[in-house]
From TrEMBL:
PANTHER family per the UniProt record, alphabetical: IG-LIKE DOMAIN-CONTAINING PROTEIN (PTHR45661:SF3), SURFACE ANTIGEN (PTHR45661)
Protein name: Leucine-rich repeat protein
InterPro entries: LRR_5, LRR_dom_sf, Surface_bspA-like
A Pfam family per the record: LRR_5
Source organism per UniProt: Phocaeicola vulgatus
Membrane-traversing stretches: none
Length: 402
């Protein structure tokens, strides 16, 4: 039996009813049989709908030479996919958005992409598949050339767990941007999830808005030495209570931690050596903004980040924060922006941060007077806005606090 005939006898399962969308891009198809009728008769393109679907089983065969299967089933009411659906598409390179918006899809067959060794992109592939509960461990095992997993499982709100070897055979991946964004049922991450992806450069928003995520394994990024940004990686993980101290210990090339833990409302503390091995960082913009349970900052949190220029909004809205270590920014002398750094930190008492220069306290707002020691801050509005109980609040210039 040929691959094509085998595929033909393995139907997709759709919701029955009226005005049912079967395919979003008919130009990819050799055959579509629904309710016993062939719907591909010539040069059809775009979406194909049927006014009424009585039989849930629909048989679809793709063209042999198809390379692009992007958005093939976008926003379709498919509930189940046959394992050999793409078996006759060995040249396929792009599965971007293939099942985007398939809100009724409840499972993915493990060998779905087993015959697609040339694929490079799974961008957006299962975005918004809200009924999907799990992902088979070997789903991408035969796809060694993939470079992009951007948005792949974003908005899969029922996804409860991730298999540890899901990306084990994808050594060329460079992008995991928002891969699991808004997977609100996800409670944990396997420690070796990215162990075989040494080329990754960005984890931007990878687990952002994963509301149920309670912990992060310490070695999650241990084998990703080329990462340059962790922008919004755990943004809005409101159940997260702690961060492992060595989480970024093997990521020396990182340049930005913008918004990394923004909105982690249950986070109570930050380990002192969290950024100790990240000497190239230039921005901590909004890194811990709205971490409502945070009460303290370790003295040496930024001691090994001498290239930082931006601390805008870093601790904005951390209203439980009681004090700031006086030496917090001693080794950060190139900073040009302190705008809103502690805005809304209403529980702050004690003195604002300062550096000792020849037995003289030099506060952040006084750095402008010491050009031989500091780069002049040029953006600093609202740095201490509403921190009225701070000892030197009155002393600070108005444009630093309003």
């Amino acid at each position: 039996m040929s691959v094509n005939s085998f595929t033909k006898h393995e139907p997709l399962i759709f919701k029955t009813g009226s005005n049912i969308k079967l395919i979003h891009r008919a130009e990819f198809c050799k055959s579509i049989i629904a309710d016993g009728k062939e719907l591909i008769t010539g040069n059809e393109s775009g979406e194909i709908r049927v006014p009424e679907l009585k039989d849930e089983k629909v048989y679809i065969t793709f063209k042999d030479d198809v390379t692009d299967l992007s958005y093939a089933f976008f926003d379709c009411t498919v509930t189940s996919i046959p394992e050999n659906l793409f078996a006759n598409c060995p040249k396929a390179t792009d599965f971007s958005g293939t099942f985007n918006g398939c809100t009724a899809l409840i499972e993915i067959p493990e060998q779905l992409f087993a015959n697609n060794p040339e694929v490079t992109s799974f961008y957006d592939t299962f975005y918004g598949c809200r009924a999907l509960i799990s992902i088979p461990e070997n789903l991408f095992a035969k796809n060694p050339n993939v470079t992009d997993f951007t948005y792949t499982f974003s908005f899969c709100k029922s996804l409860k767990y991730i298999q540890k070897n899901l990306f084990a055979n994808n050594p060329k991946v460079t992008i995991f941007q928002r891969t699991f964004w808004k997977c609100s049922a996800l409670k944990s991450i396997p420690e070796n999830l990215f162990a075989n992806n040494p080329k990754v450069t960005t984890f931007q928003g990878t687990f952002s808005a994963c509301d149920a995520l309670a912990a992060i394994p310490e070695n999650l990024f241990a084998n990703n030495p080329e990462v340059t940004d962790f922008i919004h990686t755990f943004y809005g993980c409101s159940a997260l209570t702690a961060i492992p101290e060595n989480l970024f210990a093997n990521n020396p090339a990182v340049t930005t931690f913008d918004g990394t833990f923004s909105g982690c409302k249950a986070l109570t503390e930050i380990p002192e050596n969290l950024f100790a091995n990240n000497p190239e960082v230039i921005s901590f913009n909004a890194t811990f903004i709205i971490c409502l349970a945070l009460t303290a900052i370790p003295n040496n949190l930024f001691a090994n980040n001498p290239k930082v220029t931006d601390f805008s909004e870093t601790f904005e809205g951390c209203w439980a924060l009681k004090s700031i270590p006086s030496s917090l920014f001693d080794n950060n002398r190139k900073v040009t922006s302190f705008s809103e750094t502690f805005r809304g930190c209403t529980s702050l008492t004690g003195e604002s941060p300062y550096t000792m220069i020849e037995d003289q306290k030099v506060h952040l707002y006084e750095r402008v007077n010491y050009p031989d020691h500091f780069t002049e801050p040029i953006v600093f509005w609202d740095c201490f806005y509403d921190s009225t109980d701070m000892r030197d609040y009155i002393q600070a210039p108005d444009d630093w606090k309003e």
